[in-house]
């Protein structure tokens, strides 16, 4: 009995306008997508990922719009990148590691703003990938961000820096602590106040 081997379907080539190629090397690496996605997962930075892959950011964005498979891989790489950022922030807070490699201070505020800014899109994508409820994913991200903020405040107090008071405005438009209207349990430490 012989089995027929079906060839893998070839990817449809997306036509690229000449202006999107300006600034690229002459011979494009045919595996640029893999390099781009790996770098995007590592850095969460589209410009840096495009440079490493030898393409322009305009090409990468255009391919993302035209190729649904690449778009899914792009968002999966971003999710991975934000997971890395979350873990880096947590590690630094646990280890009281506030210095950068160049001797400056690690900017926890910027890291938290990036995580919060992309919270919704990442939550939506994770819910779609895992076929889970988006609200549950967003609540999980909220909990993680709250834990990170509490650790940062504790670390600042430990080193004699007054903790900045956080805005009472919730990130997702829902009340910060639980209660009958929010449908969420009360935030840890809310009763200690």
* Strand fraction: under 5%
- Which structural class best describes the helix and strand composition? mainly alpha
Low-confidence stretches: 165-193
Helix content: 55-70%
Straight-line N-to-C gap: 74 Å
The outline comes out as globular
- Give the tally of β-strands: 0
Mean pLDDT: 75
Order of helices and strands: HHHHHHHH
Number of continuous helical runs: 8
Main pleated sheet: none
Radius of gyration: 21 Å
Based on the model shown, name its key terms.
193 residues; mainly alpha; globular; disordered C terminus
Word description of this protein:
The chain has 193 residues and is mostly helical. The protein has 8 helices and no strands. The longest helix has 27 residues, at 68-94. The N and C termini lie far apart (74 Å). Residues 165-193 have low confidence and may be disordered.
Fold blueprint:
Elements: H1 18-21, H2 32-43, H3 46-53, H4 57-66, H5 68-94, H6 108-117, H7 119-130, H8 134-158
Helix pairs in contact: 2-3, 2-5, 4-5, 5-6, 5-8, 6-8, 7-8
């Amino acid at each position: 009995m012989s089995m027929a081997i079906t060839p893998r379907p070839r990817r449809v080539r997306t036509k690229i306008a000449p202006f999107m190629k300006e600034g690229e090397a002459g011979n494009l690496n045919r595996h640029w997508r893999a390099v781009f996605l790996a770098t995007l997962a590592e850095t969460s930075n589209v410009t840096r990922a495009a440079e490493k892959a030898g393409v322009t950011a305009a090409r990468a964005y255009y391919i993302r719009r035209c190729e649904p498979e690449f778009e899914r891989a792009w968002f999966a790489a971003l999710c991975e990148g934000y997971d890395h950022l979350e873990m880096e922030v947590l590690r630094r807070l646990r280890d009281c590691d506030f210095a950068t490699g160049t001797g400056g201070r690690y900017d926890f505020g910027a890291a938290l703003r990036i995580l919060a800014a992309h919270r919704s899109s990442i939550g939506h994508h994770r819910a779609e990938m895992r076929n889970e409820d988006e609200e549950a994913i967003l609540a999980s991200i909220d909990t993680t961000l709250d834990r990170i903020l509490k650790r940062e405040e504790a670390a600042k107090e430990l080193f004699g820096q007054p903790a900045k008071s956080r805005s009472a405005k919730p990130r997702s438009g829902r009340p910060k602590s639980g209660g009958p209207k929010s449908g969420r349990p009360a935030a840890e430490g809310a009763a200690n106040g």
